[in-house]
Amino acid sequence: MANVVLPTEVARDFADGVAEHEIMADDVRQLLKRLDVEFPGVAKRLGERTAIAIDGEIFQEPFLQAIRADSEVYFLPMIDSG
Hints:
The chain is an alpha+beta fold.
């Protein structure tokens, strides 16, 4: 299962403060669906101004990116450029 890390604020609001979760998913779209089953409403929140890093590579449009069983997935707040 992939190691998934939520931003601190999202973890606090949806997951009782727990930021790291083990989730089985083939791609980001499936990952978001599974997170939303576990934590209703989290997928919408993560879709707002959030980038995703999979195994160290940041994606701005990641929904079809593959996730391996040993992947590390980080949801990151987007940086405002001005």
